[in-house]
Amino acid sequence: FLPADQIGRITRYSGGPAPGLSKLGGTEWERTKGRVRRAVGDLARELIEIYAARESAPGYAFSADTTWQRELEESFPYTETPDQARSIEEVKADMLRRRPMDRLVVGDVGYGKTEVALRAAFKAVQDGKQVAVLVPTTVLAQQHLLTFQRRLGAFPVEVGMLSRFVPRREQERIVGGVADGSVDILIGTHRILSKDIAFADLGLLVVDEEQRFGVSHKERIKQMRREVDVLTLSATPIPRTLHLSLVGIRDLSVIETPPEARLPIQTRIAEDDDGLVRDAISRELDRGGQAFYVHNRVETIEAAAERVRRLVPSARVAIGHGQMAEGMLERVMLDFSEGRFDVLVCTTIIESGLDIPNANTIIIVRADTFGLAQLYQLRGRVGRSDRRAHAYLLHRRGLPLSPVARKRLHAIFSASDLGAGYQIALSDLEIRGAGNILGAEQHGFMAAVGFEMYTRLLAEAVDTLRGRRPAPEPAPVRLDLPGSAYLPDDYIADSGAKLEAYRRFARVRSAADADQLRADLRDRYGPIPPPVEGLFTAVRVRLAAEAAGVPDVRVEERRVTLKWTGRMPDRRAISVALQVAGFRPDSGSNQVRIPVAPGRDLIETVVRALAALVPR
Predict the structure, then answer these.
(1) Alpha helix (H) ranges present in 136-213?
(2) Which of 260, 353, 442, 507 is deepest in the core (most CB within 10 A)?
């Protein structure tokens, strides 16, 4: 029931099971917003204090790029995507400043976040500083070690790793090297947060997949990060981290451009079925590929492997989980990546960073028991080459899904486009709420107005305290113009895309915005049809009416009517301004009628009349 040109006045509610409704035209909604505004004002002050402390903290300003830095960057075997190149420049710019860096790089799985971190690490090492790379799993630590050693092999850089894969004697040697400064880059799991690890001169901390670390680990990271540059990498940051980035307390870089020839992953949600599992694995093996079968219960993983062997007798099946002996898990992972096995039956230990381009089918059993970010990360283990990949999210036959599980599976199914990790993180933020940003008491206010409105009010409060007053929202304008103004089904068929296009029309604030929207629509959907031109006409008139402060504009056959709610602000001044501009207005108590001469364009006339009323 809302006119399409006013769609900007509504936002989607998410934040609680049942929002309290208020009467249209009443004051309850404004009072609720006022209460939330006061609450976010207090929160914004706390956030600003954190931000100010970070701005004034003494840090280390790294040197500009050296010849070695350029050599390393030129040895990158791929072409950087535009987003990746921008993120690298943003990280370098942060490192050159005295203020300690605190940047979050959000990039989809396989989109080149590691290369961003590797270049930053090399930059730090050239200034004689040490680098700590913190990762959540032993498998990812091993993979990062191989990547760093391969890329930095031509330079005098000592890279060490600490995880339970490393023998005790070797660990002692590396811990000693970290203390005396002979180890330049230390890659490791939670082990590098242990009290016995003392860096000689730590300059950069890289936290990979930050959402995988617990509260106690984060407290230890906080102690490490006071005066150290921190670079956080994630495909799906936890709501709290993303929220701090959205309101500007942490810097944010987003890598959304997919690598060349990358294809979206085909995702299917279905009941667990022997026939489906057999067909999925057989199809992958027939094209010479490999498959993951994720079963997240160590005690029954042998039975799961037996099931796969029974369904696909020709498949070479291996098992991998975190409770295996140290050398054994490493051996299995290496054998699988080198193609000695066809199917890896495993737990979520493969979730982070594993890069096996030949594995392009993943079957996740009991997918309804996984978190949203976890599902997204697991799905990202496939589709890392130019082959079409398939992900099967299976839930138990005959058991109804809980509402939250249904929401999660729907979100992961909807986010099948390339680069959807950021969208997944935003969905997670909606489903779970932003959590304890600085205190648990914020949740009730978020539920009162919905997440989108809460975030907007908080961002406004932060901007106000920083001295950047947000531009006031223009008063809504009612338009009654001749002709049709809508998006036809044969121009934009998808309802979601159509709604987003209407929202963009509502957000247009200048002629430049309108030109950009016109170019985007033409590029995506083709030449602009007459009804869509009608929408651009309406935007043009709306912008002119907002600038003139006229809330109601009606255009009839040979007459333009400008109307105010209540009495006209200054009737005489309005009449004089219109007469000076060449019009013969006929004014009443709250409106002005302007006759339009034959042959004159109605829309040009109304825009010219409104321009005459803009306060000089």
Answers:
(1) 138-152, 168-180
(2) 353
